[in-house]
Design brief:
Number of helices: 18
Order of helices and strands: HHHHHHHHHHHHHHHHHH
Structural class: mainly alpha
Shape: globular
Low-confidence stretches: 351-369
Largest sheet: none
Mean pLDDT: 91
Helix content: over 70%
Oligomer: single chain
Strand content: under 5%
Number of domains: 1
Length: 369
């Protein structure tokens, strides 16, 4: 919705004129908050899966960790880069990497070495389908060092201290350390890793401690309240001291982690009515990497129709539905088959297996790990 909103604003479609000003940011400007929530979930899932797979962080097999990440991330990532390169060469207007940002070669180098965010901060925004890779740059840079640090320090005091330092420095990474660079304030490594670190810390706490049901209920209620507040009045949050200090993202990640712990330890199952949202979550990697293709296609159709105001709600709805369907198809027929194939070709037949843990805290089903 955030990316559809941006296209509508660029096209000067005044579709928000009759919507209360308080609602507009909460409905269509929360993309950055969504990424922050994803980072917290990612940190929890990767850490908890690592604990189940190898028993402890200090026992992680660094080589196998990288193989698993490659098998999950690389097939679709490389295919998307190939498609984007072809579309750039064919001069499709929404996919042309302009010379001022370094051209196609520079964009490919940045994508493959996980510094799309650095490139954009220095040279400006890339086309939408390239731009979304900034979060992948942050996430994979974190996981590049995660197994090595885990191997060295396990989950001991030094490891905890490192996570806490990332959490502490996160707000500064979004404010003081950006030196006024708006893009870097949103996409810097340090400014985004506090959520991943909080997710990792949450997994460690949940692995060691089984909370009582009353405590879990308090955590769930508190977490939902924080999420509702930050997402519901996002424009007001940005204008407060919390927003100006960069703390709003950290607070959002904390609320997310509270909900994660409650959901994991109670083994909460979503009702069937939320099945479509559950599918979006399970295929979030595919949906995220591919959704801009849908956004551009349907938005161009909307423009060719004369930008009818009455069709704006349908545009938002259809982009969401088609993005979810596109991601599900990509996961079912390409990402997951390639993931399984690459794991089977590993020298260890049990690579990717997860040892069952008797604790109830880590039974999350996830296709992204």
């Amino acid at each position: 919705m955030n990316h559809v909103n941006i296209r509508l604003l660029i096209a000067k479609v005044p579709y928000t004129a009759k919507i209360p000003a308080l609602l507009v940011p909460s409905l269509v400007w929360n993309g950055q908050f969504g990424v922050q929530i994803f980072f917290a979930v990612s940190g929890f899932l990767i850490t908890s899966t690592t604990l189940r797979r190898w028993g402890s962080l200090s026992s992680v097999n660094v080589r196998d960790f990288y193989r698993l990440r490659f098998a999950r991330i690389a097939p679709l990532f490389l295919l998307v880069l190939l498609v984007l390169s072809v579309l750039h060469a064919a001069q499709f207007k929404d996919f042309i990497v302009k010379p001022k940002t370094g051209g196609l070669g520079r964009a490919l180098l940045a994508a493959l070495t996980f510094h799309i965010n650095v490139l954009e901060a220095n040279r400006g925004y890339l086309p939408g389908s390239w731009d979304v890779m900034w979060s992948l740059s942050v996430e994979e840079m974190f996981y590049l060092f995660f197994p090595v640090v885990s191997r060295l320090f396990g989950s001991g005091k030094l490891f905890i201290a490192l996570l806490l330092s990332l959490i502490f420095l996160g707000p500064f990474g979004r404010t003081v350390f950006t030196h006024g660079n708006e893009i870097w304030s949103e996409k810097s490594y340090l400014g985004s890793m506090d959520a991943i670190a909080l997710g990792c810390l949450t997994a460690l706490i949940a692995f060691r401690t089984c909370f009582s049901l009353p405590v879990l209920r308090i955590l769930a209620a508190s977490g939902i309240a924080i999420l509702t507040f930050v997402l519901g009045v996002s424009n007001r949050v940005y204008s407060t001291v919390i927003g100006r200090s960069g703390l709003e993202m950290t607070i959002l990640a904390v609320g997310t982690c509270m909900v994660i712990v409650a959901a994991a330890q109670t083994q909460w199952k979503s009702p069937r009515i939320l099945g479509p949202l559950l599918s979006l979550g399970r295929n979030s990697y595919e949906v995220y990497l591919l959704h801009m293709f849908v956004v551009f296609t349907l938005f161009n159709l909307f423009v060719n129709m004369g930008k009818p105001m009455a069709a704006v709600p349908a545009l938002f709805l259809m982009v969401t539905l088609f993005s979810g369907a596109f991601g599900a198809v990509a996961a079912l027929f390409y990402s997951e088959p390639m993931n399984r194939l690459l794991r089977k070709r590993s020298s260890q037949s049990d690579l990717g297996s997860v040892v069952e843990d008797r604790r109830p805290v880590l039974r999350a089903t996830n296709s992204s790990v």
